[in-house]
UniProtKB/TrEMBL annotation:
One annotated Gene Ontology cellular component of this protein: nucleoplasm
A molecular-function term among this protein's GO annotations: DNA binding
Organism the protein comes from: Dromas ardeola
GO biological process terms held by the UniProt record: DNA repair; methylation
Gene3D superfamilies, per the entry: Methylated DNA-protein cysteine methyltransferase domain, Winged helix-like DNA-binding domain superfamily/Winged helix DNA-binding domain
Keyword Aminoacyl-tRNA synthetase annotated: no
UniProt catalytic activity: a 6-O-methyl-2'-deoxyguanosine in DNA + L-cysteinyl-[protein] = S-methyl-L-cysteinyl-[protein] + a 2'-deoxyguanosine in DNA; a 4-O-methyl-thymidine in DNA + L-cysteinyl-[protein] = a thymidine in DNA + S-methyl-L-cysteinyl-[protein]
Subcellular location: Nucleus
Protein name, per record: Methylated-DNA--protein-cysteine methyltransferase
Pfam families xrefs: DNA_binding_1 (PF01035), Methyltransf_1N (PF02870)
Length: 189
């Protein structure tokens, strides 16, 4: 039911655009679940008033339940991280997230086991997903992640401590990691 022969979704896809501290995020999904979060490419790091921005700028009236949950979760992530634990994750409706592939296994492991404010190496994530020699495949799984931020591929870094590449660009990856570190420190007090 998820796929047609061409690999397209057989569902009524809805879209919304969210203005976030890192720019416009495009989210899409259907009644069954979230399909994708598209990240903007950042050329400069947001600061001050920009980093406080949050609103739904397109698609609010047609949002499915999974898109509403995604919006609430992302709002908490950027603006009220202490609330994240009490919010449900939206259901996902993307073929890559079927658990029987290594990519799916890696993404689910990352979502479940690498918490807000933590980071993990590609090698360690490969071990956690059950194949210690698959660090390069983990990199491929991160590149194909359809739901960045919620499935936190930005938390996967090189063993050397370098941040590594990111679909939203390295500036966004660094911003997300420092945002989480700062918020985690605030929550600790």
């Amino acid at each position: 039911q998820v796929n047609s022969k061409e690999g397209e979704f057989q569902c009524k896809e809805k879209h919304a655009v969210l203005l976030s501290p890192v720019g416009k995020l495009e989210i899409s999904g259907c009644e069954t679940g979230l399909h994708e979060i598209k990240l903007p490419k950042m050329s400069v790091l947001p600061s001050g008033a920009e980093s406080a921005a949050w609103e739904v700028c397109e698609g609010a009236e047609e949002m499915t339940e999974p898109l509403k949950q995604c919006t609430a979760w992302l709002h908490a992530y950027f603006c009220q991280p202490a609330r994240m634990a009490s919010l449900p994750l939206p259901a996902f409706h993307h073929p890559l997230l079927q658990r029987d592939s290594f990519t799916g296994q890696v993404l689910w492991t990352l979502l479940r086991d690498v918490k807000f404010g933590e980071a993990v190496s590609y090698k360690r994530l490969a071990e956690m997903a059950g194949n210690s020699r698959a660090a390069r495949a983990v990199g491929g799984a991160m590149r194909s992640n359809p739901i960045p931020i919620i499935i936190p591929c930005h938390r996967v870094i090189c063993s050397s401590g370098r941040s590594g590449h990111y679909g939203g660009g390295n500036l966004m990856k660094e911003w997300l990691l420092s945002h989480e570190k700062l918020q985690k420190e605030k929550l600790a007090y």
